[in-house]
Amino acid sequence: MTGQEREPEWEVEPPVLAAIAARAASRVSGVRRLQGGIVGLTGAAIRAVRQRIADVEPAPTEGVRTSVDGATGSVDLEIDLTISDFDQAAAVARAVQRAVRRTVTDATGIAPRNVSVNVLDADPRTAA
């Protein structure tokens, strides 16, 4: 040993960030479900096929898109969701931003540069 041991370097792939963000967002009070669009569904389907071929259970990432800036390493997350119509959209969106930012940072050491939340729908069913 030289006395100058290097810290191990970790690389967190975008699907892992998306799965962590999806789990955090779905646990916020007022979030009914995450919503995947056409692009999200296509990406999720391809990822699920690759993971099933590798015999790995895919983590849910529907409704979350990640963007990593290769030059700076900064991460942007975009989350599409449906809320309970009994909740205020802005308050739920802010709570999702805080929960996702905190959870991703705690789990990976990567603090997202941006967490954007798109409230696509309000579900009129009573809360469970």
Summarize the structure.
The protein is an alpha+beta fold.
Count up the domains: 1
CATH class: Alpha Beta
The number of distinct helices, counting runs of at least 4 residues, comes to 3
The total count of strands amounts to 4
- Sheet having the most strands: 4 strands, mixed
Shape: globular
What's the end-to-end separation, in Å?
A: 57 Å
Helix/strand/pairing class, anyone? Answer: alpha+beta
Q: What is the fourth-level CATH superfamily? A: Cation efflux protein, cytoplasmic domain
What average pLDDT do the residues reach? 83
At the fold tier of CATH, the topology name is: Alpha-Beta Plaits
Strand fraction band?
15-25%
Report low-confidence residues grouped into runs of 5 or more: none
In N-to-C order, the SSE pattern is HEHEEHE
CATH-level-2 architecture = 2-Layer Sandwich
Quaternary structure classification: single chain
Calculate Rg over CA atoms. 17 Å
Q: What is the percent of helical residues? A: 25-40%
SSE arrangement:
Layout: H1 14-26, E1 31-34, H2 38-53, E2 64-68, E3 75-84, H3 89-108, E4 114-123
Parallel strand pairs: 3-4
Antiparallel strand pairs: 1-3, 2-3
Helix pairs in contact: 1-3
